[in-house]
Design a protein that fits this description.
Chain lengths: 268, 286, 278
């Protein structure tokens, strides 16, 4: 029996050795940025540009979700936690949130849909299942097909926070795991309604006006279009020198311009 | 001679790595997933269709039903086409054609599941939505995609089973004046029965366990599907969809979903093993 | 009403051939559809560049490296273990309780879905052993996944080596190990190679397990402890996020060509093996 256990231990040891030999060469200690998968692609773009400008620096960007990112920042596993929603009360006490950009939340329907705008109340009615037919909000009579995001995604959390209040999305709603999948589905289905990042809507979908405000960058900036969420970098205490340098870069005019080009809305 | 003993010892230890791996997997999946099942007493977790992680309700009943529905649909398609193909390959196709077709079918197994899912999304889903109604993402779409995916498993194991039937059975039946189809149906399929059952069960295991393709075409709604055109969520897609974000009880519940899946698969494995052992025994009696 | 056997025969045979035809057409359709959309976009730059703006522009070089590292390492670790297990099962023991346990382990492992491997790898390699979401976590997870295939194909290849070879080898005074390495392994090598190559193909096309263990970082991994995105996962993310359909098709084409090439190579090796053993 011990022989078998030894084999197992040897297997583990070999594996451990194998990864030690693969360990990193020396450069500056990398800045670890961990968290929201919505922020991740933008952070990667920024990290790439930052490293190009500062060849001695290294920034590691990892996904895992907003909550995981904040946890990693608490444990010291990450220098910066990425978060795609407002911090809740408990979290707000632990972190300094730095808004790096904002993301509008677009309510999208098929271009063939005759509805152009909804009130927030109607939107909540639709996504809680109380309004089940497009006729009730001025459209052509057909059942409404709800397209939601999966439980836990920052986009869904923000939608719940900004729109749903205490209401629930019914269990029969379709759940897709990405903005693109929501888009694809709404594009092909005249009865569908979904929510997604404003920057990714494109020309094939119709983004609805909410409470009379069109979903544009200007309307998000001047506060008329209410459905927007912050993209945050959360740091615990004072950030280290490397992390601070990266944050400074992210807030610089150049980097903010890059984020705007990617479809986000600048922080200020 | 001493060197040979050492080598034998090393080989013995290495040979145990597969079973050790299985043991490790079992231990860790159960360690992460069992607490929440034990806490809720199991009844609520398995029999409630209420999955609302934000409110702390974790019931996977609708996903168990979703997995069963999708698997059943996949087996209908996979068995009809997979077994049909196996019969053609072994009984009707000229050997030269069969020699080309068999590797082609095996190639089907090599195509990544994300490609199958993607093809389902771009071709099958719009077709179902426009022709049959509903959102397109549905039990039916998932069944067809999975049916194609399990087909190579079903076919290659059935082919092995049919080829293992002694040639004399076939000759005897033909000599008695039976047609080739009568021979196939009444002699060959009967003789290869347990091998074909094993093929079906292993195919079922693949269908229950498939993840990425199902996420893409099943719609993932958390409701017991009312028809084959309704969307559904399976056990596997529940794990893959939400694992990225989960922490605390939610994460435990996803591991518990994994435990459920693991137990289903192990039961299928054991049944398939005993069936194929029986078919091997039948073969050795001949 | 009873149909004449000849009529039934004709109807059934037609139906069976039709089903076979549909199956083959479905396969051809999938491959041609992907290649037709993707091949025009594959260029040397696409293969050799890093992705820019999340993969919308640029190439897939880091993903090719990621796939090669994760899958290559997995097979590199699994092959010696798998072949050693097969040698043990065929040459060093008699069927008994221990071999039954080993076979049971391999058979069960073969049936476990990839998402379960992913969950396990995530907890065990990434968290408990502290390897994080990394190339090595992904590779070790895939090692367990392909191990049964390598064991089974190697065992079949070794069993197919004629008994006479072994007797001749003993006859000239070889030890068991010499007999195994010089005679058995040498003639079984193409058969073993086939299993290894098919495992490589399976590792490359795997997505669910890799997603949970190797992560999805877009950049070139600098060490085995870095996260890396594989081709299959890159295709999934590109197409699902709707980032760039042309790049998604091109990535899928690279993947399919790789799988086709591996399968053809495996098939060629197998036919050589069959020729040799006979």
């Amino acid at each position: 029996m011990t022989q078998r256990k030894n084999g197992l231990a040897a297997f583990g040891l070999a594996a451990a050795l194998l990864c030690l030999t693969g360990c990193k060469g020396a450069k500056n200690r990398p800045v670890n940025v961990v968290g929201s998968t919505s922020v991740q692609p933008f952070a990667e773009v920024l990290a790439q540009e930052y490293e190009k400008r500062n060849p001695a620096e290294r920034v590691e960007v990892q996904g895992g979700g907003s909550t995981a990112g904040l946890q990693a920042a608490v444990n010291g596993l990450a220098d910066i936690g990425m978060c795609s929603r407002s911090l809740n009360e408990a979290e707000a006490g632990q972190f300094t949130p730095i808004t790096i950009a904002r993301d509008g939340l677009a309510i999208v329907v098929n271009p063939a849909n005759t509805v152009d705008g909804l009130s927030l109340e109607q939107l909540r009615g639709i996504f809680s299942g109380r309004i089940a037919n497009w006729e009730a909000v001025g459209g052509k009579g057909s059942p409404i097909r709800l397209i939601a995001r999966e439980e836990g995604s920052g986009t869904r959390e923000s939608f719940m926070h900004l729109v749903m209040d205490k209401d629930r999305i019914p269990a029969g709603a379709i759940a897709q795991e990405s903005n693109g999948a929501v888009k694809e589905l709404v594009k092909g289905d005249p009865a569908a309604i979904g929510f997604m990042s404003l920057g990714l809507v494109g020309k094939e979908l119709k983004a609805l006006a909410i409470d009379g405000a069109e979903p544009t960058h200007e309307n998000v900036l001047n506060g008329k279009y209410k459905l927007a969420r912050p993209f945050l970098f959360a740091v615990k205490g004072a950030p280290g020198a490397g992390a601070q340098k990266f944050i400074d870069f992210v807030l610089s005019a150049d980097a903010q311009k890059m984020l705007e080009d990617e479809g986000l809305i600048r922080a200020k | 001679m001493k060197k040979d003993k050492i080598i034998a010892a090393i080989l013995t230890v290495t040979a145990l790595s597969a079973i050790s791996g299985l043991a490790l997997i079992t231990i860790f999946i159960f360690r992460e997933g069992m607490p929440i099942i034990l806490r809720t007493g199991g009844g609520e977790f398995f029999l409630s269709a209420d999955w609302r992680p934000r409110d702390g309700s974790f019931g996977i009943f609708s996903m168990i039903i979703g997995s069963l529905a999708v698997t059943a649909g996949a087996m209908v398609i996979g068995m009809i086409f997979g077994l049909g193909l196996a019969i053609v390959l072994t009984q009707f196709a000229p050997p030269s054609l069969a020699a080309v077709l068999k590797p082609v079918v095996e190639l089907l197994a090599g195509i990544p599941s994300v490609v199958y899912g993607f093809m389902g999304v771009v071709t099958l889903v719009p077709l179902i939505r426009n022709r049959l109604g509903g959102p397109g993402l549905s039990v039916l779409a998932a069944s067809i995609v999975l049916g194609i995916m399990v087909l190579p498993t079903v076919t290659s194991i059935s082919v092995d089973a049919l080829q293992a039937v002694p040639r004399s059975f076939w000759e005897g039946s033909i000599a008695l004046g039976a047609t080739r189809w009568q021979t196939t149906r009444m002699v060959m399929l009967k003789a290869a029965r347990s091998g074909i059952v094993a093929a079906a069960i292993l195919g079922m295991g693949r269908a229950v366990g498939e993840t990425m393709a199902v996420i893409m075409v099943a719609g993932n709604s958390i409701e017991i599907p009312g028809s084959i055109l309704a969307p559904t969520r399976t056990l596997t897609s529940n794990i893959a969809l939400e694992m990225g974000y989960a922490s605390g009880a939610h994460r435990e519940a996803l591991f518990a979903t994994g435990v459920t899946l693991f137990v289903i698969i192990m039961i299928l494995n054991c049944v398939a093993l005993s069936v194929s052992r029986r078919s091997a025994r039948e073969r050795s009696f001949r | 009403m009873r149909l004449h056997p000849a009529t039934t025969e004709r109807a059934v045979v037609t139906l069976l051939w039709a089903m076979a035809g549909i199956t083959i057409c479905a396969l051809a359709f999938i491959i041609i559809f992907i290649l037709a959309h993707g091949l025009p976009h594959i260029s040397r730059e696409f293969l050799a560049d890093s992705p820019r703006s999340m993969g919308r522009e640029g190439g897939i070089f880091p993903m090719i490296v990621g796939s090669a590292l994760v899958a290559g390492l997995a097979v590199l670790i699994a092959a010696p273990i798998g072949v050693a297990t097969a040698i043990y099962l065929t040459e060093y023991t008699r069927e008994g309780r221990l071999t039954a346990v080993i076979r049971f382990g391999a058979d069960c492992l073969a049936g476990i879905p990839s998402i379960i491997f992913g969950l396990f790898g995530f907890v065990f390699f990434a968290i408990v052993l502290g390897m994080g979401l990394s190339v090595i976590s992904g590779a070790l997870t895939l090692t367990l996944m392909v191990l049964p295939t390598i064991i089974r194909t190697s065992e079949e290849a070794i069993r197919a080596v004629p008994q006479a070879y072994r007797e001749v080898s003993y006859g000239v005074g070889s030890t068991r190990w010499q007999m195994v390495t010089r005679v058995v392994l040498r003639s079984a090598l193409p058969g073993i190679g086939t299993g290894i190559i098919l495992s490589l193909g399976r590792s490359i096309s795997e997505t669910a397990a890799v997603m949970l263990t190797a992560g999805s970082a877009l950049r070139m991994p600098q060490s085995l402890l870095d996260s890396s995105r594989t081709l299959a996962l890159h295709f999934y993310i590109l197409s699902r996020e709707g980032i760039s359909m042309t790049n998604a098709y091109a990535t899928a084409s690279v993947l399919i060509i790789a799988i086709l090439a591996l399968n053809l190579f495996a098939y060629w090796l197998m036919s050589r093996f069959v020729a040799r053993v006979r």
